[in-house]
Amino acid sequence: xxxxxxxxxxxxxxxxxxxxxxxxxxxxxxxxxxxxxxxxxxxxxxxxxxxxxxxxxxxxxxxxxxxxxxxxxxxxxxxxxxxxxxxxxxxxxxxxxxxxxxxxxxxxxxxxxxxxxxxxxxxxxxxxxxxxxxxxxxxxxxxxxxxxxxxxxxxxxxxxxxxxxxxxxxxxxxxxxxxxxxxxxxxxxxxxxxxxxxxxxxxxxxxxxxxxxxxxxxxxxxxxxxxxxxxxxxxxxxxxxxxxxxxxxxxxxxxxxxxxxxxxxxxxxxxxxxxxxxxxxxxxxxxxxxxxxxxxxxxxxxxxxxxxxxxxxxxxxxxxxxxxxxxxxxxxxxxxxxxxxxxxxxxxxxxxxxxxxxxxxxxxxxxxxxxxxxxxxxxxxxxxxxxxxxxxxxxxxxxxxxxxxxxxxxxxxxxxxxxxxxxxxxxxxxxxxxxxxxxx
Length: 440
Hints:
alpha+beta, 6 strands, coiled coil
């Protein structure tokens, strides 16, 4: 009975995993960010999303090109046989003499151009999210290497302290201090290993896997070397600038649309009236008329000035945003250059600190230096290693901030835990706006 329950539980758990779409596999080894990006694109269905948005745009253009539907009116007066009966039939068709249909088509075409630029930005922001997640994994890998090296240093210190304690040349308290140092570095290494696992899972989750075989080149420090070129390419593409320009044109089209609504657009009436008297004599008459709305009270006399003020405000705001973005990007790239100089300086310090620590340990083994001297040298080495890691982290944050600014987003949005979920929501919202174009 217990065996049956155990098997049932395993089956239920397997079904639950399939239901929520979690894939636990060790398929192919991911060795580069480019490879990770391709897996994310395939899993997230970026090509399908792009095609669907393009189809929506094309259908909306066709939709806005349609004529308005006519209305049919049928009425009869007199129903008794001794009464004159009159049957009327008419068709009412709005006449587009003001160019409303043509303007609506232009608005839909402009929305299609906006959709293309938004899709380009969406793809680039998606890549940036993957790059951020990959950078966090690379930094976690560096941190684990640092604590692994520091653990080895403390273990060497402990082995040397143990030999001297057994030889009676140092006190028990000195040996215990070396033990404490080794245990603390072991704890830090374990925490760094856990952080590395979390970073690996967060990256593999982007392509729908709970675990993945990810191997990063450990021989070099991951410096964001391509960020400046990437930012320059994004700026040269002019996606944001073009999108802002289209936003201004859209505001002007909205004003034109309000002007058309403020003017009287006539309707053409065509009909026939059939009159039958009690003597069964029938008279038919053709009816032709025009219905003209009287825009007496609401001529959009307030809506048009409001839209014009909105257009001016939008134009100035977008100009300020573009200028500020360029200034912030220039500052970030300058800061990144300075961090590169710091990184080189810290690297030289690290080489020297490793030599000092090794010489101090040798002096301790020979009985010339104390355990305190060894621990101070070890702490200095660890401090410089962590300083190098902090510079590396700051460099990645600065580089990704510059890339985010060039795409009209921010580092905070890219680095949030639900960044990709929010990005997908943005794509759906943009598609909804395209579908509901002009519905308001």
